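Subject: Sanity check before I submit

Could someone independently write out the structure tokens for this chain? I want to compare against mine line by line before I put it in a report. The sequence has 859 residues.
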Amino acid sequence: MSTEDHPAPRSLAEALRARDDTSLAALLRSRPDLITPVPTDLTQLATRAGTRASVVRALERLDRFALQTAEALAVAGDPASYGELLGLMAGADRDPAVAAALPGALAVLRERALVWGADDRLRLVRTARELLVPSPQHPSPTGLGPTVQEVTAGMSPGRIQEIVAAAGLASTHDAVSAAAALSALFADRARMDELLGQAPADSLDVLDRLVWGPPYGQVTADPAARLRWLLDRGLLLPTAPGTVVLPREVALHLRAGRAHRAPEPVPPAVEVAAPHAPAVVDATAAGQAYTALATVEELLKDWDEGGPAVLRAGGLSVRDLKRTAVALDVSEPVAAFWVELAYAAGLLASDGEADERYAATPAYDEWLERPPAERWVLLAEAWLSATRTSGVVGGRDAKERALSALGPGLDRSAAPEVRHRVLTLLAGLPEGAAPSAESVLARLRWERPLRGRGGAGTARSSSGEAESGEDDLRSRLAQWTLSEAEMLGVTGRGALSAHGRALLGAAEPKAAGHDGSPGPGDKLPFPHHRPAPLEPLSAPEQAVASAAAARLLAPLLPEPLDHVLLQADLTAVAPGPLQRPLADMLDVLADVESKGGATVYRFTPGSVRRALDAGRTATDLHAFLATHSRTPVPQPLAYLIDDVARRHGHLRVGAASAYVRCDDDALLNEIVADKRAAALRLRRLAPTVLATQADPATLLEGLRAMGYAPAAESAEGDVLIARAHAHRTPPRTAPEPVPDGPPVPDATLLLAAIRAIRAGDLASTAPRKPTSTDAPPTGGELPRTSSAETLATMQAAVLTGEAVWIGYVNAEGAASQRVIAPVRVEGGFVTAYDHTADEVRTFPLHRITGVAELADEQG
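---
Independent answer below. Compare away.
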């Protein structure tokens, strides 16, 4: 087929116009910002695809080899042939791995509209070229300097002729041809080898220092002989006083044609650091999952009566975070993680009252009623999708303000993508295989070399030689993901668990090796560019995956127990998790002394009194312990309960400001005579009543500190039962993740967007006849015709059944071009089939700016 039948595209818009719908859908899926909002036609789509913000975003989503390919095109000719690109990437020796991977990388660049044109005329989008090679005075990320033509543009003709002569070339009539001759010499391998063969050894050392960049060096007014030899022959060219540069053509010769020192066509393999039995991994992860549930419960139970105050700027104070860490017996960064996780899951929020505090939400009570495995799934789902990142707590924002837990400024929009990608890499390993963290980080840096380092405009070489993980947000997010997944129980001993795999919707991996078990140092091979990573699941798919994860986790979680072991030292040992009614009662009746595999509770006079204050009687407590203890109730514990119960409520405290009454006036005399009661300033009102200016709560605490067991009473004289009060916020929704740019469009949106773009493109590019009153519109302008001519053309189109091209302004004032086929004209309206909207619509004639007939199609 001849090139005349399919001429080469002259612009990106023409290249997009030649694509089919599948190719356009791939572009919009890879660069969703291009359809926000939907472009009116392909010309606008191409314009948007070339804007700086969109190109930066597209470059940031390239893997290292695709980025290296784009960088090579940035220093190649414009346009460049595929052969030239292959030479820059694979070198003179044509590295087979690079040659095999290059078509895939080029296909990625084409798919994302960063490169267009046939293989003989490859063009990198101009904005991408400007971003990757900012100016001739700045070296590109490949370390190559400007070309001979660029450096000699301001050089005197006489000086250029001197260089040409010293290089052994014939003099020319002008500077341009002289520079071209010099470029041709440097590009000729045989002649360059001959020229460099004459160079002094120390001159070659200078070139070796500059060849891989940076290509600039400093010279004095009287250069040394080794530099003078290079300057005389144009192997070094001056760019400014005291500064010289190694021309691009010379560097490419010294590099054997390579644009990069180390092309990376294949992603680094994820190495297995330690193999484990899958059953051990699952059991370990399940244990961590149970600990995660217990930790969140303990956190919110501690805040039942109102948690710490909300800072004026939002968030927890440093002091409150320290207190929370002490209460949970964890470090402060770990405490911040649990607090943020509860917040992300919607279990924790501020109450919004005048004295604003953090507390559990009503959703927390619903969460507690679910089976343990389902509760864990809710936490894991919240963690996977959350953009709030606890790892940055304690750092500072761009304005040097401290970042606090639950405060503003913690969102990192890349966090969900990194978490999902890290877990996907783990899912690709054999069961029970724990990867080395270094290999995971290396893989992520290969997949997104520009993310987290300032974008394409300020990125250094994609070879990665000078990269530092300290300032790489993506690497830090990956490290946090590995540790958080372990704490949460998604992984066990560093390997992805079966329920973690199910949560991702991952299929069972193929085992590595002949026996199916991975060994230390094993590597997982990945094909280039299309490693088939697991995509984030849709909502229905995630529901199915979550249900599967809960089913796998449930049998691994310990069954709640209905008993404890009472001991003679006034302690009770819970050998495992307790059923909720038993645990709630023990929390009131005893104090937790230690936690771990078994929880130890201690009974004290204060804890027993707390149970009596809650409305329990001594008989109730004896029956409770006898029912739930696998050992006989020790006599010291029975005596403790009876002794506290006998004294409980003998004194009654009410509000006078406060008073104490007791039928035993001798006991009141004892209290008045006690020196410890002096601070209460008690005075006798009657033989059985003492009064004070202190409030009832202070009086109660004071008497209890003296060893008495008073009970509070109401205004009617009834004993007040102190029940546990659970403070809850009003209904709250979990914080919405901050998206990392526009979401990837689904199939329905893609289909609608492509139809709208195609229809708009038809309206803007359809050939049309000129009107009788105006010249043919150009540059996307709307047609202009008189009202009479518009009406006559519409009526004629109804009779002939032909389509026409119109300009239309809607009620909001938005102008558009449309191709319509009029069906009826009456009452100031035209009813027509709108090719742009693919439907029959009615247009007011007064909103039509003009009309033109479409030109006859040429065969």
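---
OP: Matches mine. For the report I'm noting this point. The radius of gyration is 39 Å.
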